[in-house]
Amino acid sequence: MRKTSILSLLIAIVLLLPCLSSLSACDSGYDVVLNVYNWGEYISDGSFESLDVNKAFEQWYFQEYGIKVKVNYDTYDSNESLRAKLEAGSASYDVIIPSDYMIDYFIEHDMLLELNYDNIPNFEKNIPEQFRNLFYDPENKYTVPYTYGMVGIVYDTNVVDEEDIGSWDLMWNPDYAKQILQFDNSRDAFGTAMYKLGLSVNSTNTADWDKAFEALAEQKPVLKRYVMDQVFNMMESGDAAIAAYYAGDCITMMENASSNVSLDFFYPRDEQGNICTNLFMDAMCIPTCAKNKDIAEAYINFMLSTDLIIDGEPCDVARANAEYIYYATPNAAVYENPEYQESMGMGDEECDYYAMLYPEGFDFAASYERFAYANLNPKLLAYISDLWLDLKLQ
Hints:
By secondary structure, the chain is an alpha/beta fold. About 40% of the residues lie in helices and about 15% in strands.
């Protein structure tokens, strides 16, 4: 009896292994689970009558292949959080969407799988040359662009004097003490100080990072908080009046601000009047821990799609997603679409978000090479990490 029971138990375990390895896909009624790890507030999720992109993918994939896929969607609030999660090996993801400098790090440490672009035909179809072969993936083996943009400063016009805006100095202005929010991650926070000081954000000289540390230490007494996703509620509610953040998210704040809050935005400029801020590209990748590479590539291709039919209805996935998240898209089929341009207020004197995301006459390629974050060597990263810890403990 005992031998029979043990054998039965072993057989049961073997039968259950496929379910366990795909986060109980069998128990949930799905054939496979696709694990997607992305920034918070960074995908059209069905709220406010928007397209639920992940649900649409599940419907489309079953329609095309007869396989029931469940998109298990999780979020992080910084590139460093993503890196820590992957390096800890505590979870397995099929699609991740890191920023350029972190992609550079992942490639250097063999943490990404090469893509099969035969499964991603919309890359060739919709992504122009200016967004390919960038420094973090010079041969375009590992990545497909998702969004790009710049960091700017959002501020409450009811609180901030117009004479004080225009440069990074606003983030240090003692007249607005305890109303200023700063990034709660080392690279972006140090970036604000280095742009202010006219230093290269990719400097390998520790003396430059020391100068930036001193500037951040001087700033700390006027700060209300270091934040990431908390910036939304704090700026929208009027709990803070000034914050450096990503332009797309600043539009979201401006749209959702309380009636007693009047938010506006600008890109900081240097003394010559040139935009002087971080430019970034976030891209879709497949980490080496992925369990479902082919489906992950189908998901990436789906995110670039503009002409699908799902359940008999036309579905412009890429445009719907771009309209919802308010980030500049590298997908030409979207940003050249008159309907998208109109939806983003192109030409509207009071609310031209299109001009905010795609500044007229701005040379993205030239500025990107100058202002984007590059991956730094491990010794320097450790040095910066120590500076950041010292700053937070002050």
